[in-house]
């Protein structure tokens, strides 16, 4: 079902008035993690002004350490939805457990499956049964085939609104947090009809590399970008080192449009 032959013209996933997979590249931005009402509203206004059309923010966070901030849970979802409504943007947030799917779907317009859960098959089966598009991140040690088979779980379970997201794979080099695998973009476009976006924030882990890799993703054929951006990246409770300012986001948005129209 995920194969290109199943829908040669390509799939457009519509979320509110945002079309992912259509002719315009889509920018999704916001904080890694929802921290407070004030932080979320400020970030939403700033990224909206910088060219974002969809808002991101994690409420249930898959932190490597159990001692790191785990997110605000349902309160975080409420604040994210409020900020989205205030700025006219649909919102995307991660769901980590099958039993949380209905709760996250009450607040989020798009359900994110994180890299660490790409092969959580009970979770994939559960999001297949809910009436929300799914942003499926690539596992950081998953092959393209494994990733597409995870998408297949969601499609086969009855949900045909899947957006793929390349977010970097693990390599040997500690210079960057992950290695953004841009091979994946043209490959996915050959192999599948599903829209593909790129996450240069987790793909690099470094603010100074985000703009270049975002633009490279668009040049490679991505349908959009998901970027961690907030007014005060150095104060972020999670992923500050890879978060960019709204000014940098605005510059990415302008150049992404120019590159895309030259393709
Ligand atoms: C995130 O988007 O904040 C996140 C945790 O991403 P990933 O699952 O790609 O690490
Ligand atoms: Mn993050």
From TrEMBL:
Superkingdom classification of source: Bacteria
Molecular functions per Gene Ontology: 3-deoxy-7-phosphoheptulonate synthase activity; aldehyde-lyase activity
Keyword Zinc-finger (UniProt): no
Domain DAHP synthetase I/KDSA: 17-254
Segments passing through the bilayer: none
The entry's keywords: Transferase
UniProt entry tagged with the keyword Transferase: yes
Gene Ontology BP annotations: aromatic amino acid family biosynthetic process
Main enzyme class: transferase
Protein name in the entry: Phospho-2-dehydro-3-deoxyheptonate aldolase
Species this protein is from: Sphaerobacter thermophilus (strain ATCC 49802 / DSM 20745 / KCCM 41009 / NCIMB 13125 / S 6022)
Residues of the full protein shown: 72 to 334 of 342
């Amino acid at each position: 079902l995920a194969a290109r032959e199943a829908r040669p013209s390509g799939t457009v996933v519509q979320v509110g008035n945002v079309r992912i997979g259509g002719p315009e590249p889509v920018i999704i931005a916001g904080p890694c993690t929802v921290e407070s009402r004030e932080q979320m509203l400020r970030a939403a206004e700033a990224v909206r002004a910088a060219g974002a059309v969809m808002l991101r923010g994690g409420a249930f966070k898959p932190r490597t350490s159990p001692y790191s901030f785990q997110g605000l849970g349902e309160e975080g979802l409420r604040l994210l939805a409020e900020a989205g409504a205030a700025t006219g943007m649909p919102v995307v947030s991660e769901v980590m457990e099958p039993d949380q799917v209905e709760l996250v779907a009450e607040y989020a317009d798009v359900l994110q499956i994180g890299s660490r859960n790409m092969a959580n098959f009970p979770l994939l089966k559960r999001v297949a049964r809910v009436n929300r598009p799914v942003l499926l991140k690539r596992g950081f040690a998953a092959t393209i085939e494994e990733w597409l088979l995870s998408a297949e779980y969601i499609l086969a379970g009855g949900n045909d609104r899947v957006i793929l997201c390349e977010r970097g794979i693990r390599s040997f080099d500690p210079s960057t947090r992950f290695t953004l695998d841009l091979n994946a973009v043209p490959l996915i476009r050959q192999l599948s009809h599903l829209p593909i976006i790129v996450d240069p924030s987790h793909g690099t882990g470094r603010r100074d590399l985000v703009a270049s890799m975002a633009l490279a993703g668009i040049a490679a054929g991505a349908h959009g970008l998901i970027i961690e951006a907030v007014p005060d990246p150095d104060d972020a409770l999670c992923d500050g080192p890879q978060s960019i300012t709204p000014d940098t986001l605005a510059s990415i948005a302008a150049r992404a449009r120019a590159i895309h129209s030259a393709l």
